[in-house]
Write a structure and sequence with these properties.
Blueprint: H1 2-18, E1 28-36, E2 42-47, E3 55-59, E4 64-71, E5 76-82, H2 89-101, E6 114-118, E7 124-125, H3 132-135, H4 143-162, E8 165-175, E9 181-182, H5 185-188, H6 193-196, E10 206-214, E11 219-226, H7 243-255, E12 267-272, E13 278-279, H8 297-316, E14 319-320, E15 325-333, E16 338-339, E17 344-345, E18 351-352, E19 358-359, E20 363-364, H9 376-379, H10 385-397, H11 408-413, E21 419-421, E22 439-447, E23 450-454, E24 458-459, H12 461-475, E25 482-486, E26 495-496, H13 499-504, H14 507-510, H15 518-535, E27 574-576, E28 581-582, E29 587-594, E30 608-614, E31 617-623, E32 629-636, E33 640-648, E34 655-666, E35 673-679, E36 683-685
Helix pairs in contact: 2-4, 7-8, 12-15
Bound molecules: zinc ion.
């Protein structure tokens, strides 16, 4: 007892020493980097809606990886926000393998201090998981996309590292009204009344923003977290887009003169947080396919609300972060994790019946097998009749070994959840991986008085709030008084809800894979990581996850055998010229004969240039990443590609313009890929 007291006193003493005095600011090493991760723009199913007909057919905005290196001289951390639907486990693993192979970067970074988080855009190409459940809608694993993502994230980290300079970090918080609504209110309302009473809303409206400024005054970038789904653009869209968060980043970066092709430039990241039950579409309605503000009020609202608040917080930030940089990371096996507070173990993964309902406002299933709220008792699941039917149905549909679903311990572990797909015990083949990952990474970063929890799933409003409290209490003695949840980080394991929400088995609860105590388990582990930071001790790295890269069936589509153009035409020939003149606000369009988009992703480049005549020479004014342009691909005949380029001139100035298209075509005999360009006649914008 006395010994315990002595240790506690020593801890308190240590805490007093290392906790920064109020108002004391620290100097950090800070670097930012941004790199293109846009994948194949033709015939690849998009990640997010699980709609197999939603295939890429062009580009609205390019997808980017935005990286920040932050260090205190002794230790460094990397935070990446990537315009992706999910951050799959093999992406994190392979990015870290590339870092390990890099003689310079490997001196500073590894899986322990690199945090990769996805924005959760629902309009990017998929097929980059390696786990069957997440590659299934894409009909397999798409190496071209996987490699573009892994390399792009790695390049962004490399740029951030090369750009490191001494600077200060300012922190600011505000709230955004009317930007997100709770789509699972019934589940949320099952949280304790006393807990709900602590908050004014059933969504987390807090935006937390970091402003990075070099000691010489140079603005390095901003990084903010705000909880809202980036699915303002619906599942009928076929253009790659960063959705509301990608567009908000674009606007902020445009204000700061960001050059996407430069090795050093201002970076503005809009990262994801506890948005598991937060839709941008309540009150606006999701526009199924539109990528313009005029046609998509939900998109306009979510973009401008986030952008405006970030600008306000950035411009008014005065408080500086202070204190040391630190991190802890561990892998945990979620099949067998003992949860002390529940005196129970977590469960092998499983997806509940209500996952088939989809989520209202964002992606409801037109024909759900089971509605939201389907529980073991409501289904009388124990009679086995329903699951016998489903096992034969799904077991026949998917050609993998369907396990015995009468495993009593597995079912008991999942409590209220009737398992529809036993993702944690079903195998693609007898020696293959399970359908979703079960050895997952948990990580805490500390940047002065801010703590960041890397959560390897989507996480609901209240679950996120509990994690934030866990970090504040775990690291409070080390001076931490700000905390954020970085969701969809390092791995994707679907959703995570609170114990009370789990009991209701709404869509998000049905997609909480490791049973009723998953949140308590992760809170326990975050506490362990926080304690290790406070005590300066190491944590057991945990088991090594299996490498499943490419283990799902290789995707068969997404390539052209060869490209061709009609007789008398060449690649880049204009098929339909723009009009000779337009009024501002009109949408200009032109059609070219072109090549297949996936021949070359034109990474860090563009498929189109809007050129303006200035002093007798044409200069570029917009490219394929600018949201006022679209690059649209359509197959014509067997081997022809028709490329339609549009330009919304609402914000353009009067003048003389023309449209250039750049692409790559493939020769059938040799597979040789060659670049081409074409340009339209000029036109007047009045
Ligand atoms: Zn989601």
């Amino acid at each position: 007892m006395l010994r315990v007291k002595m240790i506690m006193i020593m801890f308190l003493f240590t805490a007093v020493i290392i906790a920064p005095a109020p108002g004391f600011a620290s100097t950090y090493l800070i670097g930012s980097g941004i790199y293109d991760i846009t994948g194949p723009a033709a015939e690849v199913v998009m990640m997010g809606y699980d709609v197999s007909s939603q295939k890429t057919a062009g580009i609205h905005t390019r997808l980017r990886s935005r990286a920040f290196v932050i260090g205190d001289g002794a230790k460094r951390v990397v935070f990446v926000s990537a315009d992706l639907g999910m951050l799959f486990q093999m992406v994190k693993v392979k990015v870290c393998e590339k870092i390990a192979d890099d003689p310079l970067l490997s001196q500073f970074y590894n899986e322990q201090n690199v945090l990769l988080s996805a924005t959760h855009t629902h309009n990017g190409p998929g097929g980059f998981s390696g786990y069957f459940l997440y590659d299934e809608p894409e009909s397999g694993f798409i190496w071209q996309n996987f490699n573009a993502i892994v390399n792009g994230i790695y390049q962004s980290i490399k740029l951030a590292h090369n750009n490191v300079q001494s600077g200060r970090i300012l922190i600011n918080q505000g709230t955004i009204e009317g930007c997100g609504g709770n789509r699972a209110v019934t589940a949320y309302n099952n949280n304790p009344a006393a807990e709900r009473a602590q908050y004014s809303s059933n969504t987390d409206k807090t935006m937390t923003l970091l402003k990075f400024v070099a000691l010489n005054g140079e603005e390095i970038g901003e990084l903010n977290w705000y909880a809202v789904h980036p699915d303002s653009i619906g599942p009928d869209n076929h253009l790659i887009s960063g959705d509301n968060k990608g567009w908000a980043s674009y606007l902020f970066e445009k204000d700061k003169g960001t050059n996407y092709q430069a090795s050093k430039t201002f970076v503005a990241a809009f990262a994801q947080s506890n948005a598991g039950d937060v839709t941008p579409n309540i009150g606006y309605g999701q526009a199924p396919k539109y990528v313009t503000f005029a046609q998509n009020p939900s998109l306009k609202n979510a973009v401008l609300k986030q952008y405006n608040e970030a600008k306000t917080l950035y411009n008014s930030a005065t408080q500086e972060l202070s204190g040391s940089v630190d991190f802890r990371h561990e892998w945990v096996d979620m099949r067998t994790l003992y949860v002390a507070s529940a005196n129970a173990y977590t469960c092998a993964a499983g997806m509940g019946a209500s996952m088939s309902a989809g989520s209202p406002y964002d992606n409801p299933s037109p024909t759900p097998l089971f509605p939201d709220g389907t529980t073991v008792s409501s289904l009388n699941w124990n009679d086995n009749a329903a699951e016998t039917v489903l096992s034969s149905l799904l077991g026949g549909l998917f050609a993998f070994a369907w396990p015995a679903t009468n495993d009593a311990a597995y079912k008991a572990c999942q409590a209220e959840k009737p398992v529809l797909i036993p993702t944690g015990i079903a195998h693609l083949n007898i020696n293959g991986p399970t359908m979703t990952p079960q050895i997952v990474p948990l990580q805490v970063l500390k940047i002065g008085n801010l703590a960041i929890a890397a959560v390897p799933s989507e996480v609901t409003t209240m679950a996120g709030r509990r994690i934030i409290k866990t970090l504040i209490s775990g690291l409070g003695s080390a001076g931490v008084n700000y905390s954020v949840v970085a969701a969809l980080a390092n791995t994707y394991t679907s959703y995570m809800v609170t114990r009370e929400e789990y009991a209701m088995q709404w869509y998000e609860g049905a997609c909480t894979q490791f049973g009723p105590n998953q949140l308590a388990a992760w809170q326990q582990e975050y506490t362990r990581l926080c304690n290790a930071i406070v005590n300066g001790t190491d944590v057991d790295p945990g088991p090594t996850p299996e490498d499943v890269t490419g283990l799902t069936v290789d995707f068969a589509g997404g390539t052209a055998v060869f490209d061709d153009v009609p007789l008398g035409k060449s690649f880049g020939s204009v098929s339909t010229q723009p009009n000779s003149s337009y009024k501002r606000g009109d949408t200009v369009s032109a059609v070219f004969w072109g090549g297949y988009p996936n021949n070359d992703l034109r990474t860090q480049d563009t498929f189109l240039v809007i050129e303006k005549l200035v002093n007798g020479a044409y200069v570029p004014v917009a490219r394929d990443w600018d949201p006022e342009t679209t690059y649209n691909w359509a197959r014509n005949s067997i081997a022809y590609s028709k490329i339609t380029i549009t330009w919304d001139t609402t914000n353009a100035s009067a003048g003389t313009y023309r449209i250039r298209h750049k692409g790559n075509w493939k020769l059938g005999w040799t597979g040789k890929i060659s670049a081409y360009e074409g340009v339209t006649n000029s036109f007047i914008l009045n």
